[in-house]
Every structure is written in structure tokens, then in C-alpha cells.
Amino acid sequence: MTEIPKEEYILKCTSACAGCSSTLSLRYVLKAAGPDMVLVVPACCTSVIQGTYPRTAMNIPVYNIAFAAAAACASGMSAAYRKKGVKTRVIVYAGDGGTVDIGLQALSGAFERGTDFLYICYDNEAYGNTGMQRSGSTPLGAITTTTPGGKVHPKKDIDRIIEAHNPPYIATACSAYPLDLFQKVTKALSLEGPKFIHLLAPCPPGWRFPAEKTVEVGKLAVKTGSWILWEREHGTLQVSGPSRAAMKKRVPLDEYLKMQGRFRNITEQQKQELQRNIDRALARIACEVKQPCS
Ligand SMILES: Cc1ncc(C[n+]2csc(CCOP(=O)(O)OP(=O)(O)O)c2C)c(N)n1
Ligand code: SF4
Ligand SMILES: [Mg+2]
What we know:
Elements: H1 21-33, E1 37-42, H2 45-49, E2 62-65, H3 70-83, E3 89-95, H4 97-101, H5 104-112, E4 117-123, H6 158-163, E5 169-174, H7 178-190, E6 194-200, H8 204-207, H9 214-223, E7 230-233, E8 236-239, H10 241-248, H11 253-257, H12 268-289
Parallel strand pairs: 1-2, 1-3, 3-4, 4-6, 5-6
Antiparallel strand pairs: 5-7, 7-8
Bound molecules: thiamine diphosphate (TPP), iron/sulfur cluster (SF4) and magnesium ion.
């Protein structure tokens, strides 16, 4: 952890909920990026957390943009900077709703055009800012305000959609593993072109667990294989340390589900489907990296 700079770009007293892991993650993202950056934020919890003028919780420039337009905005910004010979880092920090649903078209366009930027999707698996409606990223069986009986559709696999654009770098991360997150952001920013990081962001009010359990929930996501930490640089896949350990010995999925009130209606059949999806995802990765998987 000594490699993480002491400079803070998020000031104290944000308006985030207690235990908000997307804010914790952003703290490490900004430390990795340093001061020469612009953060582009579509409508989401982060646009509230940053504060409103004249009170702001950020001491870097932040550009707030319409829900669907973050990647398009960042694309234009990056092109303008590069044209002037300026290296300023352009980073999008967007929620899952703004990424896998409403911002997908702009995101795909920016990746297709080879925009030099880093797009980070922090995934709290619902539309948090407006009261936890289901998104395409909400997992099967989870209760949201628009799926009061539990979601009946599986989570959309945004990583494979982005992978289809063949970016130079794509990775997953979670605030429960801050050094891994810091190193991935650092690596992404060292490469040219469009980069994507998909961050799991446990959300205490939305997932219905006590605020002090944020790190524990994030770790259980990884230890059960529900969230796999990996990175793909120029096409080559590497499984990150915590998930290599999980591939050898996994914690039962129930340990993760039972900590969260949003899964209180989940059926046995849905649990089995979640388990099958985990097994399939781990087997696919194990096959590609030629690593045994229990
Ligand atoms: C076009 C448009 N539709 C709806 C909204 C209302 N809105 C603002 S933030 C938000 C939820 C965003 O969800 P997500 O992207 O997952 O980020 P989170 O709030 O979870 O951080 C919604 C629906 C809006 N601002 N603009
Ligand atoms: S609703 Fe969730 S993601 Fe949004 S500020 Fe609160 S804890 Fe963070
Ligand atoms: Mg969200």
C-alpha cells in the first residue's frame, strides 16, 4: 500500500452514504491518475457525491454530462486535448445504468473510434441515485424497487461486449482490493487508446447490508467467484491474485448472498443458475489461462 500516493483528490465530507464503496474506489482511481486529469461524470450517485457549486468534494476538474453522453463527451474532450498536444487524462466515472443500458451506444462509438481515454463503470448493480431501480447489470434474484419479487433476468455481460471492440486494456476490480484497483488504473493510464475498467461497487442501502460490511461483502463477491478479478492487456488475459486463490478454493455462494437483504426472495432454482454461471465463467477463464479450477 506504500506505493499509493498520499495526495487526496476527494475532500472530506462528501454526500455519499456511509460505507459507499464507489466513492472509496474513486479515491484510489484519482490517486492513480494524479492532478493532470478531467473526470467526466454522467447522471449517477457520483454527480451528487461530488457536491454542488460552490461546495465541492473534488479538487480536480469534473465535467457533468447528460446520462447517455459520457463517452461521447470524453471522446470530444480527448480529441481536442490531443490535437493541442496536451496529455491530460480523460476519465469517465459512470454507473452501471449509465454504462450497460443508457450510455452503451456512446460507449461503443468511442471504443470503435479508438478514443484515448479510460472509461470506468462502477457497478452497484442498480440505478442507485434514483432509488435503486433494476438495471441491465442487476443480478438474477436481486430485489430492487422495480423488481420487488427479485429480478427474473440475468446480469448483462458488459465485459464481453467491450471485449468485442478489442481495446488495448480491459479489467475488473473491486474496492475491497484497493492495491489491485490502483495498479490496474495506473496500467490502463500508461496505455494509449480506449481502456475499460469494470468495478464492483457494493452499496449498503441498495444491497441492504450494514455500512461497515462494505469491504467484507466485496471480498466475499471475489472469494465465492461471483466477481472475478482479471485484466486483459492487448488480448492477453491474466487472472488477478485474489481470484487465482478463489479458483483453487471457493467460499460457498450462500455466504455472499445471505449477507444481503436484496437476495431474501431468491429461489433455489435461481441460486443454482447463479452457481452455474459462476462455474461457467471460471471454467472459461481457466481454460484460456490454462490454470486448474476447482
Ligand atoms: C435521460 C435521463 N433519464 C433519467 C435520469 C434520472 N437519473 C439520474 S441518475 C439515475 C440513475 C443512474 O444509475 P447508475 O448509472 O447505475 O448510477 P448510480 O446512480 O447507481 O450511481 C437516473 C435514472 C436522468 N438524469 N436522465
Ligand atoms: S446509493 Fe450506493 S452507490 Fe449511491 S451513494 Fe449510496 S452507497 Fe454509494
Ligand atoms: Mg448503479
